[in-house]
Design brief:
The chain is mostly helical and 637 residues long. Helix content is 72%, strand content 0%. About 5% of the residues have low confidence.
Length: 637
């Protein structure tokens, strides 16, 4: 089977690296998995026929053929794994500029060396000896047969217990015997109990943090101004940068970023035509103007023209929010955010000009840097500002949130990105950037666990991803900056896809209350949400993997504690997305839909379906053929 080939390669790699103890632990875990699979097989397929299973029948032919195909493939790849390695895995590794894997029949590898091969054989022989010893002990200690029960029991693995009237050991008999004799072992090795306690603790922490954030949301407008002042003071006086000069961002924006933002903008614009949400204004004119200004700002190289176009787009979003937000508090909060970010961006650029710099003898650089960092922290809702974006999540339509997050905010990040490249001391000292990006990701991911609103979940997912995008600023490397480029491009496309996928259910009012089983009514939107989620999490073969693994590598180069925080954040985000997918889109299978909720598919507009499928294809194409992205980057990614 293919599992043997893969396990053998893993054991050989561990032994080659000198990790004999971890290899033994992995072997023990594999042995335990065998017992669990045997128990599951006995419980599901080998138990007695019951009232519930008496009418059971074989699966439909399509499922039988599918299972047979997978079983045959597992056997073939177990005997000749080089078929998959040489024609699928190694091309992927070459595209990622990693070493190829050499395997032969049964998964044996010449790269492993004689030591690892011998070590693997030792494990196999040791397994055989231990299995034989267990059998011998069971054979010696079995109960003697007694009259009347000679034909009813006495088998080694039944413990000498009499069999039931059915003449075989049922799943219930197996479980009860196992539980009786291994009760103490199961009591102190109950991994599920540990997992449940950890999960309960995480949920409690998420709910507690959510209470704090909800308090901040109610005073968002005032706190935005107060926290912006605190961030400015912290950057200006607590973590000042070395004296330097700042000439503004003169570097051209990578074409892959411009293309991603442009495609996301086009998708949101087309969806706004068929969106059924009724409001005071039509969305599409604002979508067109704001998107055009954002893309035009990324295309120009003159810093003042770029700044003017991008900040004009941000100011126009205020008008859009003003007409679409439900409450005045949300309107004033976003107005404060945009005014602060525009003031900081323009003020930083003014103070960075050569004439003014010479007039102040370079002392204004610290003020320019503090304004630049404050503006981006406020704009991207990084710690400690993440509460303001949450306060808008349920106030704005999904398409408006998508425009702000996938187009306007990514354009602002790109503007900051080129400024940071132009002047290294923007991000000094490193301690500022080593700690605040992972804290941003971790807090956002922790808050995601207790969210029941899909829009709030996506907002927090954006904040979690922003932490990843900012981590490379703590470590100047080629792999880190390429990671930011591809991750930001993925963020634009995937976030546009996710919010577009919500627009259909939202227009029908299906997101109100506690929605369940949305996939039955909106199958194409569920399809888009699934792939948008995978891209945001960096799951291969989506485009998100190209950027995420580079950011992980950058974090590892900085230090394992930092990488550990990001890995934990990704795990929490994965759990939160999975819960949303199963609870809201798929729905619990044991709870029927309310009578008032139609279960038949809703006719989703053709334009909406086309946009969703096109974005999914782009995310997959970028992940499967990264050379296409390399052409937009000017080199191999």
């Amino acid at each position: 089977m293919s599992g043997f080939a893969s396990k053998w390669m893993l054991y050989a790699a561990a032994l080659q690296a000198g990790w004999a103890v971890p290899a033994m632990v992995a072997w023990a875990v594999s042995l335990g998995t065998v017992f669990l699979c045997a128990k599951a097989t006995s419980a599901v397929f080998l138990g007695p026929t019951t009232e519930a299973t008496k009418d059971a029948h074989e699966s439909p032919p399509t499922m039988v053929w599918g299972m047979g195909f997978l079983a045959a493939g597992s056997i073939i790849l177990g005997v000749a794994p080089q078929l998959a390695v040489n024609y699928l895995l190694n091309p992927i590794l070459n595209a990622l500029q990693m070493s190829a894997v050499n395997v032969t029949w049964l998964g044996l590898s010449s790269d492993a060396g004689s030591f690892s091969s011998v070590g693997g054989l030792v494990l196999a022989v040791f397994s055989l000896i231990v299995g034989g010893a267990i059998y011998a002990v069971a054979y010696v200690s079995r109960q003697p047969k007694v009259a009347g029960a000679a034909l009813a029991g006495g088998g080694i693995f039944t413990g000498g217990e009499p069999l039931s009237a059915q003449g075989r050991l049922t799943a219930g008999d197996f479980s009860s015997i196992f539980l009786q004799n291994w009760h103490e072992f199961f009591r102190w090795s109950n991994v599920d109990a540990v997992y449940l306690r950890v999960w309960s603790g995480l949920q409690a922490a998420s709910r507690g943090l959510g209470v704090v954030v909800s308090v901040l949301e109610r005073k968002a407008t005032i706190l935005v101004i107060a926290f912006a002042a605190l961030v400015f003071a912290f950057v200006r006086w607590i973590v000042p940068a070395p004296q330097s000069s700042y000439t503004g961002g003169q570097l051209p924006i990578p074409l892959v970023l411009i293309a991603a933002v442009g495609i996301a903008a086009v998708g949101l614009f087309l969806t706004s035509f068929v969106n059924g949400i009724k409001g005071k204004i039509s969305l599409w004119p604002f979508m067109l103007i704001i998107s055009s200004l954002s893309v035009a700002g990324l295309l120009v190289e003159n810093p003042w023209i770029r700044l003017g176009l991008l900040e004009s787009a941000a100011l126009l979003t205020v008008v859009l929010v003003w007409f679409t937000a439900r409450t005045k508090s949300a309107k004033f909060t976003y107005l404060a955010i945009v005014l602060i970010s525009v003031f900081c961006a323009v003020g930083s650029e003014v103070l960075a000009q050569g004439v003014i710099a010479n007039y102040f003898q370079g002392e204004n650089w610290a003020w320019s840097r503090a304004l630049l960092i404050t503006g981006i922290v406020v704009k991207l809702a990084a710690v400690p500002m993440l509460f303001w974006l949450l306060s808008l999540a349920d106030e704005l339509p999904a398409l408006v949130l998508g425009l702000i997050i996938a187009v306007v905010d990514i354009a602002a990040l790109v503007e900051f990105y080129v400024g940071a490249i132009d002047q290294f001391s923007v991000c000094f000292p490193h301690s500022l950037w080593v700690w605040f990006p992972p804290i941003t990701s971790l807090l956002a991911a922790l808050l995601m666990l207790s969210q029941r609103s899909l829009k709030r979940l996506l907002v927090l997912s954006s904040v979690e991803d922003i932490g990843f995008l900012l981590v490379c600023l703590a470590y100047w490397s080629d792999i880190g900056f390429k990671g930011v480029i591809f991750a930001a491009a993925t963020h634009a496309l995937a976030k546009a896809l996710l919010f577009i996928s919500l627009s259909g259910p939202e227009a029908d009012g299906a997101l109100e209350g506690e929605p369940k089983g949305l996939a039955a009514r909106y199958p194409v939107s569920a399809f888009g949400f699934l792939f948008g989620m995978l891209a945001m999490l960096g799951i291969p073969p989506t485009m998100g993997f190209i950027g995420r693994w580079r950011l992980y590598e950058t974090a590892v180069q900085i230090g394992w504690p930092l990488a550990g925080v990001f890995i934990i954040s990704s795990i929490l985000a994965l759990i939160a997305y999975t819960l949303a997918l199963t609870r809201i889109w798929w729905g619990p299978p044991h709870e029927p839909s309310p009578p008032s909720t139609p279960t038949h598919p809703t006719k989703e507009p053709f334009v909406l379906q086309t946009v969703i499928v096109a974005l999914v294809v782009l995310l997959l194409a970028g992940g499967i053929w990264p050379d296409a992205l390399g052409m937009l980057l000017g080199g191999r990614p």
